[in-house]
Structure formats: structure tokens, C-alpha cells
Write a structure and sequence with these properties.
Blueprint (H helix, E strand, L loop, with lengths): L8 H11 L5 H19 L20
């Protein structure tokens, strides 16, 4: 899976302007920072899970 390219702040501002939401420049900067951070975290999610590596946790009401 290829990594999506994070938009620049200017590209993000242009897309934010199209939403019609009353966003301040500070709002847009915070949203951009969060979006870029989310994209970086998504790259760390493994594509293949080793399900047998850890036994499942079973919780029962009677215990």
C-alpha cells in the first residue's frame, strides 16, 4: 500500500475554504496538523496481523 501524500497547508486551506465552515486561520493550522499526524499514524498500522502471536482475551461475566 503506497503512502498518501500529505497536502500542503495551502492545499488544505483551499479545501477548507470549499467547506463553507467559518474556520479561522488557527483552526485550519490545527486541523492540518492533525490530518498530517493521522496520515503518519496510518502508515504504522501493519498490513498483516499475526493473529496467532497472542491468545485472545476472553472475559466472562461469571468470573
Amino acid at each position: 500500500m503506497s503512502s498518501p501524500k500529505a497536502p500542503s497547508l495551502e492545499e488544505f486551506r483551499a479545501h477548507a475554504a470549499l467547506t463553507g465552515l467559518p474556520l479561522t486561520p488557527e483552526d485550519i493550522e490545527h486541523l492540518h496538523k492533525g490530518y498530517v499526524g493521522l496520515l503518519e499514524l496510518m502508515q504504522r498500522i501493519p498490513t498483516h496481523w499475526a493473529w496467532a502471536a497472542e491468545p485472545p482475551q476472553v472475559f466472562r461475566a461469571d468470573e
